[in-house]
Amino acid sequence: MSTVELTKENFDEMVAQHEMLILDFWAEWCGPCKSFGPIFSQVSEQYPDILFGKINTEEQPELAQDFRVRSIPLVVVLRQNIAVFSQPGMLPASALVDIIEQAKALDMDEVRASIARDAEK
User: Fold this and answer.
1) DSSP state of 31
2) In angstroms, rounded to a whole number, what is the distance separating the alpha carbons of residues 109 and 29?
3) Residue 39 belongs to a domain with what CATH number?
4) Residue 82: strand pairing partners
5) pLDDT tens digits, 7-41
6) Is 80 assigned a catalytic role?
7) Are 10 and 58 spatial neighbours (Cβ–Cβ below 8 Å)?
8) Residue 59 to residues 11, 12, 51, 89: CA-CA distances in angstroms?
């Protein structure tokens, strides 16, 4: 699947329609973001069942704030509407693939149980 531009208008709908999303927070002025863009797009072609969304932090400040973006590029992995991974900085394709494979292998029942335990503390 190719990448999709996500905005505050379509974000919730896209999250509801996809079990897993890989998000790339970026900005036009960001050199590392421009270098990472082709890597993100290339990896997206390997995973037609996952939505790869690009979020321009300059045009979508609300989404950037929701995800507490402090540094870009920032990759966030959402699975079943839970952020299971967040990493600032440029990643090589092999690292992005590794992150995706680890996220796909997660036991989401255990993730939710862990979140519930942490909330009780």
Assistant:
1) H
2) 40
3) 3.40.30.10
4) 79
5) 999 999 999 999 999 999 999 999 999 999 999 99
6) no
7) no
8) 13, 17, 20, 20
3-state secondary structure of 5: strand
Q: How many structural domains does the chain have?
A: 1
Q: How confident is the model at residue 1 (pLDDT cuts 50, 70, 90)?
A: low
Residue 119 has pLDDT above 90, yes or no: no
- On the CB side of 115, CA atoms within 13 Å amount to 10
pLDDT tens digits along 63-116 = 999 999 999 999 999 999 999 999 999 999 999 999 999 999 999 999 999 989
Phi, psi (5° rounding) for residue 36? -75, -30
Catalytic residue at 30? yes
> Per the structure block, which two tokens stand in for 72?
């870009």
Which of 33, 43, 63, 100 is an active site residue?
33
At residue 94, the pLDDT reads: 97
Structural domain that includes position 110? 4-120
The first and second tokens of residue 49, run together, are 């069942």
